[in-house]
């Protein structure tokens, strides 16, 4: 009988190795279960599982933060490495899974621009942001291992294919958009736009789209559009007799309203030739602004102060600044703006030279001395007879009286 001693020995070795591996696996499992039970029993410590470069390390720690755990485990971090949860995370729960993303070189190719960065980010969007690059929704990216080890090192390459920006006017609304399409027709398909029988394009569907191309899509004939427009608020003035003239303050701020206005629009060869409002719907009513203005007139004591009062009262009566020089000159000639000025020959009296003086009594019993009473009568007299101070002054220059 012949025995193959070599085969028998190999079998025993394989069997022995298998037993050793099984024992190691059982031991590791028992350690993890023990550590979890120890942490959950409240006997102190947090069970931390650290994933770093494809390796897993399980430990029990009483540290305050994730960063303290890593430091205690002798794990060093580069300034570009990323940790989740963050190293500043305070340990509160009984168990944590900690992932360490090691920074590695990435070559970012963006058109003719090529730059190298060191980053721990995993996705193209995150890497581009870390490199200070803005990505648009229409841009495409590919992230692969670099083929040029000598130039780029053992890292990754992020290649960005930029979408072409162009001006797109769709039914009257213009904006800058981007596309990966090569032609106008393909762009419309990419944007999900289906042309109707009356729709037209400014360029043929086969025309190429390049940077700064302008593409317009419109609908021939009459159509309707609805736009939101503001409704201006009104201002209400409240006169406060306790406030001096010239005081002005907003009591309640006004707020503009909004309305949806529907227009019938006529388009010919892509150009709007007529627009007519056919409906308007208020969506938000405006709130009026309320303004408090001072109405307390000064009490003059001399002709100069009478003139200042007359100026204020003239403006309050609705006349413009252009009428002031006429009124000032008229009453300078009549009375010098003195309340007690009297004409001995005619009997005319006061600032406006009322004839007789008693005509002013209807405006106040103090008509002989009060400038406000006399000016009120004088302004009404001018308005009723001449319409304005300048018309009264024109008449005075012709006749020598008014």
Structure description:
By secondary structure, the chain is of the alpha+beta class. The chain has five domains: 41-101, Ubiquitin-like (UB roll), CATH 3.10.20.30; 104-161, Ubiquitin-like (UB roll), CATH 3.10.20; 164-219, Ubiquitin-like (UB roll), CATH 3.10.20; 226-293, Resuscitation-promoting factor rpfb (Resuscitation-promoting factor rpfb fold); 300-399, no CATH class. It is built from nine helices and 18 strands. It has helices at residues 5-40, 66-72, 124-130, 149-152, 184-190, 303-316, 324-334, 371-385, 389-399; strands at residues 46-52, 55-61, 82-84, 95-101, 104-110, 113-119, 140-145, 156-161, 164-170, 173-179, 199-201, 214-219, 221-231, 235-244, 248-252, 257-268, 271-284, 289-296. The strands form five sheets. It has a four-stranded mixed sheet with strand order 2-1-4-3. A four-stranded mixed sheet has the order 6-5-8-7, with helices on one face. Strand 1 and strand 2 (55-61) form a beta hairpin. Helix 7 packs across helix 9. The longest helix has 36 residues, at 5-40. It is elongated, with a radius of gyration of 46 Å.
């Amino acid at each position: 009988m012949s025995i193959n001693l070599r085969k028998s020995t190999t079998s025993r070795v394989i069997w022995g190795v298998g037993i050793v591996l099984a024992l190691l696996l059982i031991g590791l499992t028992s350690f993890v279960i023990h550590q979890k039970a120890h942490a959950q029993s409240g006997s102190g410590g947090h069970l931390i599982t650290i994933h770093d470069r494809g390796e897993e390390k399980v430990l029990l720690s009483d540290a305050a933060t994730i960063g303290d755990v890593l430091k205690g485990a002798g794990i060093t971090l580069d300034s570009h490495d990323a940790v989740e949860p963050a190293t500043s995370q305070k340990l509160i729960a009984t168990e944590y899974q900690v992932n360490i993303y090691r920074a590695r070189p990435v070559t970012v190719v963006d058109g003719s621009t090529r730059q190298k960065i060191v980053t721990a980010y995993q996705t193209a969007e995150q890497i581009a942001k870390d490199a200070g690059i803005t990505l648009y929704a229409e841009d495409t990216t590919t992230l692969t291992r670099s083929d040029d080890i000598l130039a780029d090192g053992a890292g990754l390459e992020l290649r960005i294919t930029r979408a072409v920006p162009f001006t797109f006017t769709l039914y009257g609304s213009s904006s800058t958009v981007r596309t990966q399409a090569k032609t106008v027709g393909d762009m419309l398909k990419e944007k999900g736009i289906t042309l109707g029988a009356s729709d037209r394009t400014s360029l043929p569907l086969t025309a190429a789209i390049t940077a700064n191309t302008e593409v317009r899509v419109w609908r021939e004939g009459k159509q309707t559009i609805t736009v939101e427009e503001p409704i201006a608020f009104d201002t209400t003035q409240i006169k406060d007799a306790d406030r001096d003239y010239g005081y002005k303050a907003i009591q309640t701020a006004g707020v503009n309203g909004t309305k949806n206005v529907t227009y019938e629009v006529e388009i010919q060869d892509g150009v709007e030739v007529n627009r007519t409002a056919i409906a308007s719907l208020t969506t938000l009513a405006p709130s009026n602004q309320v303004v408090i203005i001072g109405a307390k007139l000064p009490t003059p004591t001399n002709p100069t102060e009478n003139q200042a009062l007359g100026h204020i009262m003239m403006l309050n009566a609705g006349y413009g600044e252009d009428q002031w020089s006429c009124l000032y000159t008229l009453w300078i000639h009549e009375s010098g703006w003195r309340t007690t000025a009297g004409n001995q020959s005619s009997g005319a009296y006061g600032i406006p030279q009322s004839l007789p003086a008693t005509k002013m009594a209807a405006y106040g019993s103090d008509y002989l001395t009060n400038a406000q009473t006399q000016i009120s009568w004088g302004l009404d007299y001018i308005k009723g007879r001449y319409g304005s101070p300048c018309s009264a002054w024109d008449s005075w220059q012709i006749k020598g009286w008014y």
